[in-house]
Structures are given as C-alpha cells and as structure tokens.
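Student: Please help interpret what follows.
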Amino acid sequence: MPKHAAIRSSARKSAVKAKSKPPAQTGTKMSNKTGKLPEWNLADLYPSIDSAPLKADLERADADCIAFERDFKGRLSDLAQNAPADLAAAVRRYEAIDDLMGRIGSYSGLVYAGNTTDPKIAKFYGDMNDRLTAAYLHLLFFTLELNRIDDKVLDAAMAEPALGHYRPWLEDIRREKPYQLEDRIEQLFHEKSVTAYSAWNRLFDDTIASLRFKVRGKALGIEQTLNLLQDSDGARRKAAAQALAETFKGNLRQFALITNTLAKDKEISDRWRGFADVADSRHLSNRVERDVVDALVAAVRAAYPALSHRYYKLKARWFGKKALPHWDRNAPLPKVAQRTISWADARETVLTAYGAFSPKMAEVADRFFEKRWIDAPVRPGKQPGAFSHPTVPSAHPYVLLNYQGKPRDVMTLAHELGHGVHQVLAAPNGALMAPTPLTLAETASVFGEMLTFRKLLANTTDTKQRRAMLAAKVEDMINTVVRQIAFYSFERKVHTERRNGELTADKICELWMSVQSESLGPAIELKPGYETFWVYIPHFIHSPFYVYAYAFGDCLVNSLYSVYEKSASGFADRYLAMLSAGGTKHYSELLAPFGLDARDPSFWQGGLNVIAKLIDELETLG
C-alpha cells in the first residue's frame, strides 16, 4: 500500500476489527447508557467519495507528479552543487505533493475504516490505492536520486538555509541509502505492492470484519465479542472466549496462508535490501538501534516473574482460585460494582486531567470534541480497536474509537487523544518532518493515560474502588509492556521459522502458545482454543514488529512521569516542546532535557519498577 493510503494505526494494544454501514458524515449515535456518541465529520477532507473536489485533487496530483518528474529527474546532483536554493524549492514542491496525496489517501483510509464491508467503499478504497500508487511512481526517483548525491556535496548544499531547514528529513533519507535498490527494481516493488502485501492486508481486514461469533445464540462481530471478555459475568466471558476460538479455528487455514504469505513477502524484500535481522527494517524506520530494542526485550522478559506472573497469581487469589482460565485474564474484580461511564463523563474526566497538567494540552484535546474529529460508536463493518490518524499538516487528525462505556474505554480515549495532541503540535513541521518515529509515537498517548489514571486515583478513597482502579491500570500496563514484548517474540519466531519454509497453522499455534505461557505465567490457564488467538492481531499483518513500540513508550513514559513527580516546574513546557518537535530530532536528543538515556541499562528497569510498585500497593490492599 502506498504510504499515503495507510492508516497509521495506534490500534489499541491487541485491538481487532468489527462490522457494516457507511461512516456518517453528520449526526450522532444514541446509547441509553453512554449518551450521544459522536461520529466524525470527514467533510473537512472531502465532501464525499464522489465529490468534485476529490476528483479535482486526484487530477492535480497526477499532473503535479508528472510535472515534478519532468522538471527534476536527473538534475538533483547538479542542483546540489550549483543551485542549492533550487534544490530546496524542489523539496518544497515534493512536500506539497506529499501533503496533497496524503489528504486523498487519508480520506480513503478513514472512510474504509468506518465500514470495511461495504462493497462500494471497498472499491473506492482500492481505486484510491491504485491511483496513488501509479502517481507516486513519478516521485519515486526523488529520494533515490538524492541518495546518490555525494555526502560532502549535500552537506555543503545544506549551508543554504532554505535547504538546511530540511536537514532532519534529508538525514533520515540518507539512513535508507545502504538498503536502496536500483531505480527500476524500486519501481517494481512499489507498483506491485498493490497486488502483494497491500492486497493481503486488505484480505485480512475484510475477513476479520465479516467474521461472526455465536455467543448464547447471538451472532456478534469481533469488537462486541472481545468486549465480553471484560464482562462482570464469568459465564459470558467463557462463552465469548469459546465463540472466538470456534470461529478462529474454522478460519485458521486462511489466516495461516495470510501470515505465511506476508512473512515470505517481507523476507524477499529484506533479502534484496540487505537487512540482516528479521526486525532490522522496523528498527531503521523507527530510528532506533537494534541493541536498544534488544535491551528492552531482555529487561521485560527478565521481569515477567516480578510483573505478570506475580500479578496474575494475586488476581487468581482474589477470585478464590489457584489459576484463572484465560478468559478471566482481564475480568473485572469480583464484588466491585461495574458502571457504564457516559461519553460526557469520559470527556470531562480526560480534559480535566489534561488541563491540570497543561491548559494548552486540554485546549488542543477539546478541539477533537468540538470540531467532530472523533468517531466513537460501535457499528457493523467498522474497524475495531482505536487509532488516531494524523492525516496531513494542512488538515488535522481524526480519532476512531469503539466506545462502550467501560473504564478501559475512558483510558483508550485518553490514549488516542494523547496521539491527537501530539499530531496537532507536530503538524507545523510540515508533511516531511511532522511524522514521529515509533520510538516516541506512543509517548504522548501513554502519558495521556497516566495523567488520567493519576487524576482518577487521587479522587478515589474507597478501598475496593481504589484496588479495582489499580488492578485495571496494572493490567493495562502488563498488556502494554509484557503482552507486546511477547507479541514481538512471537513475530520473531514466526518470521525466523518462515525462512526455512511454510509454516502449518498448527506450528504457528505452537509458537504462539510458547510465548504466551512464558509471559503470562502459571496463574493463567491457557484453555483449549486459546492457541488460535494470534489470528486477530492486526499489527502482525499491517506493521510487522510494530508492537515493541508500545513497551518502549510505556517504560519511557514511566521514567518521564517520575521526572515530572520529582520536579514539575517547567516540565509541561519541556514536554510540549518534545511533542512539537515531531520527526525533526532523534529520540535521544528529545529525552536529554529530561536527563533520560535509553542506552543506560537502568533506564528500562526504572520504567518496569513503576509497574512493580503498583503491584506492591495492590498486595497491601489484600
């Protein structure tokens, strides 16, 4: 899929997909318990999928791409040596086209996310991908040719202020240089992406969205079924888990085929480009060193006994058991009243927490509510989980949720609004330098959750409610850190094994169970059927090895929050400046003002200790 058409999903933890009906451009959904839920207004991008402005922009994108290739192909080295101001003008034109194509791709992706099962929308989404892929072929030469300019020549050219402005982007491009192929091969890879990994991504999305799970005689979509795993009724949780397993098992061959094909597709690309390790291409795109990620993974795996194993043993005791079946892993605590949180209360909770930290942060977050940048209801065909999509700097982000009034849904709202605030603040850097590498992309989201959690906890004096809140936060952090590193370990096993030949569905299930039993520990009993639960994780399909970014972000935020608690004065200003930097600085530069260094072996342990201390407090509460 061309990058412009991709939803940069921050799909919440182990989020999946759901159901059928076009995304409304106006109006709201009504739920008796949650109140009115907003549906986003995509007209800020385009009025409709067949509107005149969209057609005009498509034609302009085609023309601009052709003209750009005609004006600059084969000239970049000469411009760098003799006319760096003209090279800067070329970069500005490239950026403007990137923004234009990004607007089209964002719109098509968001419409499709609102309803992945409508044939008309699916055709529109596919057609837009085709058009953008074809147009981008005329731009493909630009970064390839930039990387053929001699380093000394380009460095000298960046003395021109107009070109020097783009230094962070140009330096990022240079990092790709060792893995860049001959132009015609790059063109082939790009053009065939529509019928290669993009097609398999789409097949996965369509399949997941169309699945139905029979729970107590009702056929439910996946979002509703997964939601039942947090129901207060243990029988419902069990029924939902069994329904998930039954349907997944019935479709296991297709998911195994998708997984095998995408793993092989990635192996071919990695081999041609010269990446040594299965995850090196992700590390490169994240602008993070492999040894830093390895240190994170080693620290988390070593902490499994002190974190997940210890917590689930404690939770099993609360339930009066030695071990919990897997469907009770995220169950609400027994004898604690469960309430549905209205949308209005969720909004107030998050904005109050944000405002106490920074009025500016709350003001930006409030725009999402006031200007209808949020789509909250569960609908048939709608993509499950949640994300905040930045779109392009000339527009604004959009947030997708599947809000059902649970406390975790409030945390999800806080999480996605953190992304949204980050994306708004970074937008002035422009289309080329606003995007943030995954090493920091989850920082604002997890920090937003932490602010909201701390605010709620400070206002809770009832012991049972406090224990329930702490337990929910610990579970969320385990899902973010332990579970995501287990996911990363699973992906490494799948992609490594795939290099030796195709994997059977049973083999993939075996690899899944090996990492799950290691990470969850003896207090979680993995019942028959759980071996299939790998099939619904979208990150494995859309963004291989994305998942460690969640653990990176959570541990980083824990360390950041510790700095904030020790010295709040001036912290908010430094924090917002970090978010505003977007992709213009390496993560190490952005952490330096806070006295943090991810290369320090104690850095990750400090973040993990925050989780351990919360479990300590839970143990004192009984």
